[in-house]
Amino acid sequence: MTVAAASLTRLSRAGVAFAISGNGFSIARAAALTAAPSFPVGPVSASKTPSSFHGVYARSFSASASRCAPDSFPGSSSPIVGAGPRQPLPSQFFFSRRPGSIAAKTSPVAAAIRSASTQSDKPAGSSEPAAAPRPRRPVFAFLSRALAWIGGSFVFIGLAIVGFFVYDSTTYKEGAEMEEIAVSNLALDPRRGGPKNLPIYDVQIDDADCEERLRTKDKPKLVILGGGWGSVAVLKELNPDDYHVTVISPTNYFLFTPMLPSATVGTLELKSLVEPIRRIIKRVNGHFLRARAEDVDFSYKLVEVSQVDHTGKETRFYVPYDKLVVSVGSVTNPHGVKGLENCCFLKDIHDARKIRNLVVQNLELACLPTTPDVERRRLLSFVVSGGGPTGVEFAAELYDMLNEDLSKHYPRLLRNEISVHLVQSRSHILNTYDETVSRYAEDRFARDQVDVLTNSRVNEVRPDRIIFTQMCDGKPVTKELPMGLCLWSTGVSQPEFCQRLAAKLGVAQTNRHALETDTHLRLNGAPLGDVYAIGDCSTVQNNVADHIVGFVRNLAWKHGKDPETLEIHFSDWRRIAAEVKKKFPQAVAHLRRLDKLFHEFDKDHSGTLDFGELRELLKQIDSKLTSLPATAQRAHQQGQYLGRKLNKMARAAAGLHANDIQDGDLDAAVYKAFEYHHLGSLAYIGNSAVFELGSFSVSGGLWAVYAWRSVYFAQSVSMRTRILLMMDWFKRGLFGRDLVSY
């Protein structure tokens, strides 16, 4: 290669570099310079060495781009071959094809120039290929990504912490702002009236606290008795501006009852199961009175309310209503058993705290050196009376605590002497569930050494033992069982308030266990459309017996038989009952009872029932049992239904008044009747869970436990309780259960 050619090559590279540097010399000109196939080079004088030659052209390039002619090379009189007029370059010369690479920032011409200059520097005849860039090792790539993720996580956590403290700083207030508050004299000094001449709480103290409450001041007065599942569901469905809402309850919180067994052994904290009722009421701009409902005067539309102060003094007053919702829950059914004062119950947060303290107290007493062996075994004997979901879940939670946490903090001897007993009056536990679910629970308890005593009925509960009768080979045998704690969980019954209402309503109320309502949830016997009852305290009189009789009648006609002369065999009745269960899930308890009552109503012991005997049998069942399960699921559905119906009635009120429609079945005119949809049942059984979902059932180990937790996590009423539940489960996994009594 000649000196001139070598200098030209270096010159070309310098030109391209200059062009890329952006000093005004465009890539188009650099392309024009290199487009010539040859460069006319004359004889080079000895005075012009290669270095001086290069310096001349370098200085020419560094002068000014404006002095460079488009068709001649600086410092030379020879034209550049192939140079022509300036043409605009296509857009792809300037846009990236491979992000992040040098080629993406230059044009194809510039890339060609670099390639040509690299080839020209190689010795003649060299065929060595260009070295490919070495690939990045996968380990280094993974480490770089991992470090990036870790760094990003630290940054995110840091920003979150800073954001929390910034938000937290805004929640503090320095000094209270006192201002004039308008309060009606009737709120501070209520007028007296009613049948007992008590103060009537017409105007609330906080009616004028804000603009939203002022808007509802003159709206229809909706009074809700109770703060359970049904009441909260109504509050969550109501439109905020339709009613003047007042909630009356002896407790100022909503309790998440399905998780109470977990709180008795420290798996969950009690505060994680409660939500302040005032937070829930705030959504509808409502009012709350911490008091107890005593009676209702239907003619005056007044609720009699009582409150006891710290000195034990009781005060009573009236709360007026336009519409009243009774949702006061239920109490435990004693079944006429003596000595229930020696038992624990599990209906509210105080019961859970009492059980938790008693369990820990028994464990501590069993550790004392002065405790005899017999007394130690009695203290460590835990008895559960009732094989329903509450009793089964408490027994499972108690076993898990004793098995997983006891040996970590207490002498190992205690674990060998602890016993858990489950007494059930029926032939299986969880008898309202599917048979496969019940059998799985019994097998699980047998494996965990939980003593299940079926066909056993408690006769008496003494301070240190229970007396019960068990059917053995068809004969009753009386037995006794020492106990340090007995949980009574055997069904529900009416509270005293509901009993007074039922007595006042007379023949309209025939059920001994719950207040009867129609299919629109209106209280039977009360003025139509004024009073509703939902939740455990009520039962919908949907006449399951009539439905079953109608089903059998249609079945007889279908087979060409006269229903009045039809005789039903016991085997036929089982098949009919199976069909009825599919159509009426709420009738499961009734149909289980039919197996026993069939032989009782078979007067001639012929193994058949005629149509009249069948009708009487079903009527007797309807009068004794509630038609719907006393569960949170049922109360929640009823509350949702009633809230939506009240919204629609408020919207339709203007049209009804305009047409002078004041009487009649207004509920039926604006909304459909209530229909219960059984979504399934769940139960926790010792680090496993069972699900009954419609026509199929599922049971399993830890995966089912996580699914069980997820269901209840989603059903929590607020984000606050969800976060607390998650923290409690996380804390149990890290540190175990909290075995502290207080």
Question: What would your notes on this structure say?
Answer:
This is Mitochondrial nadh dehydrogenase. Residues 113-133 are annotated as: Disordered. It is found in: Mitochondrion inner membrane. By secondary structure, the protein is an alpha/beta fold. It has four domains: 3-116, no CATH class; 186-332, 3-Layer(bba) Sandwich (FAD/NAD(P)-binding domain), CATH 3.50.50.100; 340-493 and 680-735, FAD/NAD(P)-binding domain (3-Layer(bba) Sandwich), CATH 3.50.50; 544-624, no CATH class. The protein contains 25 helices and 28 strands. The strands form ten sheets. It has a five-stranded parallel β-sheet with strand order 7-4-3-11-22. Helix 1 (3-21) runs parallel beside helix 3, helix 8 crosses helix 22 (632-658) and helix 20 packs across helix 21. 31% of the residues are buried.
Give the helices and strands, then pairings.
Layout (H helix, E strand, L loop, with lengths): L2 H19 L5 H9 L14 H14 L44 H14 L16 H33 L14 H4 L3 E2 L4 E2 L11 H6 L4 E5 L3 H9 L6 E6 L3 E3 L4 H4 L10 E3 H5 L5 E4 L1 E6 L4 E7 L5 E7 L2 E4 L4 E2 L16 H18 L6 H7 L1 E5 L3 H16 L1 H4 L2 H6 L1 E5 L11 H13 L3 E3 L2 E6 L3 E8 L2 E8 L2 E4 L3 E2 L2 H10 L9 E3 L13 E3 L4 E3 L3 H15 L8 E3 H14 L4 H14 L6 E3 H14 L7 H27 L7 H5 L10 E4 L4 E5 L2 E5 L1 H14 L3 H17 L7
Parallel strand pairs: 3-4, 3-11, 4-7, 11-22, 13-14, 13-19, 14-15, 21-23
Antiparallel strand pairs: 1-2, 5-6, 8-9, 9-10, 12-20, 16-17, 17-18, 24-25, 26-27, 27-28
